[in-house]
Amino acid sequence: MTTKKKKKTPKSDPVKHPDHYCRGDGLLESWDAYVATYGREAAISAARFNIHKYLSRFDRKGQALQDLCKIQQYAEMLKPLVADDYDWPVG
Fold first, then answer.
1. Which of 45, 57, 82, 91 has an alpha carbon 20 to 30 Å from 31's alpha carbon atom?
2. For residue 4, is it within any domain?
3. How many CB atoms lie within 10 A of CB 17?
4. C-alpha–C-alpha distance, residues 68 and 72, integer Å
5. Is the predicted pLDDT of residue 4 greater than 50, yes or no?
6. Whole-prediction pTM value?
7. Residue 13 within a domain
8. Domains held by the chain: number
9. From the DSSP assignment, how many helices (H) and strands (E) are in the chain?
10. What is the pLDDT of residue 87?
11. What distance in Å separates the CA atoms of residue 58 and residue 83, rounded to the nearest whole number?
Protein backbone atom coordinates (compact mmCIF):
# COMPACT_ATOMS: atom_id res chain seq x y z
CA MET A 1 0.00 0.00 0.00
CA THR A 2 1.45 3.36 -1.00
CA THR A 3 0.72 6.50 0.92
CA LYS A 4 0.34 9.78 -0.84
CA LYS A 5 2.56 12.54 0.54
CA LYS A 6 0.59 15.50 1.80
CA LYS A 7 1.64 18.83 0.32
CA LYS A 8 3.08 21.13 2.98
CA THR A 9 1.18 24.29 3.78
CA PRO A 10 3.51 27.24 3.26
CA LYS A 11 4.46 29.27 6.34
CA SER A 12 2.57 32.55 6.72
CA ASP A 13 4.50 35.64 5.66
CA PRO A 14 2.98 39.14 5.37
CA VAL A 15 4.71 39.70 2.01
CA LYS A 16 5.26 36.34 0.29
CA HIS A 17 2.41 34.28 1.74
CA PRO A 18 -0.20 36.27 3.67
CA ASP A 19 -2.84 34.04 5.25
CA HIS A 20 -5.68 36.11 3.80
CA TYR A 21 -4.56 35.39 0.22
CA CYS A 22 -4.90 31.62 0.17
CA ARG A 23 -7.57 28.95 0.36
CA GLY A 24 -8.42 27.26 3.64
CA ASP A 25 -5.93 24.44 3.06
CA GLY A 26 -3.22 26.94 2.11
CA LEU A 27 -2.30 25.08 -1.06
CA LEU A 28 -3.56 27.51 -3.70
CA GLU A 29 -2.50 31.11 -3.50
CA SER A 30 -4.95 33.65 -4.85
CA TRP A 31 -2.25 34.81 -7.30
CA ASP A 32 -2.09 31.35 -8.88
CA ALA A 33 -5.89 31.23 -9.05
CA TYR A 34 -5.93 34.68 -10.69
CA VAL A 35 -3.34 33.69 -13.31
CA ALA A 36 -5.15 30.43 -14.06
CA THR A 37 -8.52 32.19 -14.35
CA TYR A 38 -7.64 35.37 -16.23
CA GLY A 39 -4.43 34.44 -18.05
CA ARG A 40 -0.96 35.78 -18.59
CA GLU A 41 -1.74 39.26 -19.94
CA ALA A 42 -4.22 40.08 -17.18
CA ALA A 43 -1.77 38.85 -14.56
CA ILE A 44 1.00 41.03 -16.00
CA SER A 45 -1.35 44.03 -15.79
CA ALA A 46 -2.36 43.12 -12.22
CA ALA A 47 1.27 42.82 -11.10
CA ARG A 48 2.14 46.11 -12.78
CA PHE A 49 -0.80 47.81 -11.06
CA ASN A 50 0.16 46.44 -7.64
CA ILE A 51 3.77 47.55 -8.09
CA HIS A 52 2.49 51.04 -8.95
CA LYS A 53 0.07 51.03 -5.99
CA TYR A 54 2.69 50.07 -3.40
CA LEU A 55 5.32 52.37 -4.91
CA SER A 56 3.01 55.37 -4.83
CA ARG A 57 2.10 54.95 -1.14
CA PHE A 58 4.97 53.08 0.54
CA ASP A 59 6.10 56.11 2.54
CA ARG A 60 2.62 57.12 3.72
CA LYS A 61 1.26 54.05 5.54
CA GLY A 62 3.86 53.54 8.25
CA GLN A 63 4.96 50.22 6.74
CA ALA A 64 7.48 51.46 4.21
CA LEU A 65 9.84 48.49 4.38
CA GLN A 66 7.01 45.96 4.10
CA ASP A 67 5.52 47.79 1.14
CA LEU A 68 8.92 47.92 -0.60
CA CYS A 69 9.18 44.15 -0.05
CA LYS A 70 5.74 43.77 -1.65
CA ILE A 71 6.97 45.70 -4.69
CA GLN A 72 9.88 43.31 -4.92
CA GLN A 73 7.56 40.30 -4.51
CA TYR A 74 5.27 41.47 -7.33
CA ALA A 75 8.32 42.03 -9.53
CA GLU A 76 9.42 38.46 -8.81
CA MET A 77 5.92 37.18 -9.64
CA LEU A 78 6.05 39.17 -12.87
CA LYS A 79 9.36 37.73 -14.11
CA PRO A 80 8.13 34.24 -15.10
CA LEU A 81 5.08 35.74 -16.80
CA VAL A 82 7.22 38.08 -18.89
CA ALA A 83 9.71 35.29 -19.63
CA ASP A 84 6.78 33.03 -20.55
CA ASP A 85 8.09 30.54 -17.99
CA TYR A 86 5.21 30.53 -15.49
CA ASP A 87 4.69 27.31 -13.52
CA TRP A 88 0.94 26.95 -14.16
CA PRO A 89 -0.94 25.28 -11.28
CA VAL A 90 -2.66 22.04 -12.23
CA GLY A 91 -6.31 21.73 -11.52
1. 57
2. no
3. 15
4. 6
5. no
6. 0.69
7. no
8. 1
9. 3, 0
10. 80
11. 27
